[in-house]
Specification:
Helices cover 21% and strands 24% of the residues. By secondary structure, the chain is of the alpha+beta class.
Length: 505
């Protein structure tokens, strides 16, 4: 088949317009020579660079504002850097005090203040000119201790380091608000845990304040209130706004309340031992209250017990029989440094089981127990059984008793009980006219004539309850007095004759 000259011309034009792929590959791609500044690494993920591709000294523009609960890297953090298929640049590093890590190809890179995602992005940008597949991963191996400050109503305010490492160094526990409070030896009894303030760095915005309500955590189990603590946080635990408010027992028994602490209060008025008193709270030990004649039922609080008003009265050896326990006053310092008065009605505590009247005390409280204007014997019968009343009273029985002398009795023991504890009356006793003497609060002496009928029930008129330092006098009967006088008279007459008779024998 013959092809015309015109057809050959068209064929040549078409071949020139569409070159073959193999010819194009060899004519358009040149292998660049290695740069004199660096030799080509052996790793397969690194690619050679031309002079125009060497990155300038620009940095990634990272947003400064932080997420509220985001962990930011800082000096002392131990991190692991994994660069895909480049083991020479991968490995574990500790962020230097200036906040940087050192990578061979790019030098020092500052990671301080960045989150893990931001650190990944920054390293990818820095290493992008050197990598064929730009895969970089930064992970946190061991977090640094957090430098924080705790002030306000905690037992040990001030700066401190909060570590993530758990017991034995094996486990890594989150640094939370409750752990921070524990590190400050717990909250005080006047702390307002419903309005804790956390001041936190927020990049270019300066600092932001986060409000936390730990009361919600204790009452509703809202674990979100136990926020994570970040480096540089400042925690403020404010005092309770109202002086009459006190912590609930739920707060006192919480994990961030201390296991033991000591406060000092002052007690005046109708107690048996006035003055300053030191109260010790111990969650795990048994602490005696100092109450005279204390027993495990009344004088010792199991586990230490809350530092309450009733425990303070126990340490003061209890209230007197004329104490007005329905109008006890507690003078307390408020958050402004002024004293306000809180009133407590302990009569409602022992008659209505109103535990809210047994107020939790704080350091520096002043307690005043006033005197009753008109003592009520019925109320005293209840008060004498209370744990904040003395467990022992001393009563004197003199005269015609089988075992006269001082007796140790329980409070409000009846008149006839004292006679029984004294062994009863002698045959010469006048049981119809036994005298009871009592010193009144104003210093006067009360005298009553009573009948020593051991079958009488407790009654304020015929068989009254006894008070501390009462004196019972049992005199001889009229017949016994006459017989005793005659015997003494005859003895005086007979004695001289017996003496003379003995002389002349």
């Amino acid at each position: 088949m013959r092809i015309s000259r015109f057809s050959n011309t068209i064929l040549l034009v078409l071949m020139a317009s569409f070159p073959l792929p193999s010819l194009a590959q060899t004519t358009t791609i040149e292998k660049p020579a290695p740069t004199p500044a660096m030799s080509e690494p052996a790793s397969g993920n690194l690619r050679p660079l031309t002079g125009s591709e060497i990155p300038a000294a620009s940095t990634l523009s990272v947003k400064d504002s932080q997420d509220t609960f985001r962990y930011t890297l800082g000096a002392g953090d131990s991190i692991k850097i994994d660069i895909f298929n480049v083991p020479e640049l991968s490995g574990t590093q500790t962020i230097a005090p200036d906040g940087t890590v050192n990578i061979a190809l790019i030098g020092a890179v500052k990671l301080e203040g960045l989150g893990l995602d931001e650190a990944n992005a920054l390293l990818r940008e820095k290493l992008n000119p050197f990598l064929v597949r730009n895969i970089v991963n930064v992970s946190l191996l061991s977090p640094r201790p957090l430098n924080i400050a705790i002030v306000g109503e905690v037992n040990r305010p001030g700066p401190r380091f909060l570590s993530y490492v758990g017991a034995g160094g094996a486990a890594s526990n989150a640094a939370t608000l409750t752990r921070a409070l524990e590190s400050a030896s717990g909250i005080t009894s006047r702390a307002d845990i419903s309005n804790i303030q956390i001041s936190r760095r927020d990049g270019a915005l300066g600092r932001r304040v986060i409000s936390v309500n730990l009361q919600e955590l204790l009452e509703k189990g809202d674990i979100s209130q136990d926020v994570r603590i970040l480096d540089g946080d400042s925690i403020l635990v404010p005092p309770l706004n109202q002086a009459n408010a006190s912590q609930t027992r739920t707060v006192t028994n919480s994990t961030f309340s201390p296991d033991g602490y000591t406060i000092q209060v002052a007690i005046v008025g109708e107690v048996n031992r006035i003055g300053p008193q030191t109260l010790v709270y111990s969650r795990n030990g048994v602490v005696p209250t100092g109450l005279t004649g204390d027993t495990k039922a009344a004088g010792v609080s199991s586990g230490g017990g809350p530092v309450t008003l009733s425990r303070a009265l126990q340490t003061a050896n209890g209230v007197t029989e004329v104490a007005d326990i329905s109008n006890i006053e507690i003078s307390r310092l408020d958050d402004k440094g002024t004293r306000t008065v809180v009133k407590a009605n302990l009569l409602d505590l022992i008659t209505k089981a109103d535990l809210s009247q047994d107020i939790l005390l704080t350091d520096g409280d002043l307690i005043r127990v006033p005197r009753l204007s008109t003592p009520n014997p019925r109320d005293y019968q209840q008060i004498s059984k209370a744990t904040f009343s003395p467990t022992i009273i001393t009563v004197q029985v003199v005269g015609e008793a089988v075992r006269p002398g001082p007796l140790q009795l329980r409070p409000n023991s009846s008149f006839t009980e004292a006679i029984s504890f004294a062994g009863g009356l002698t045959n010469d006793a006048d049981w119809r006219a036994v005298e009871l003497y009592r010193v009144n609060p104003d210093g006067s002496i009360m005298r009553r004539n009573l009948i020593a009928d051991l079958n009488l029930p407790l009654n304020e008129d015929s068989n009254p309850g006894l008070r501390d330092r009462d004196v019972i006098v049992v005199r001889p009967s009229f017949g016994a007095s006459i017989l005793g006088s005659a015997t003494r008279f005859l003895g005086n007459i007979v004695t001289p004759f017996s003496l003379v008779n003995n002389l002349f024998r």
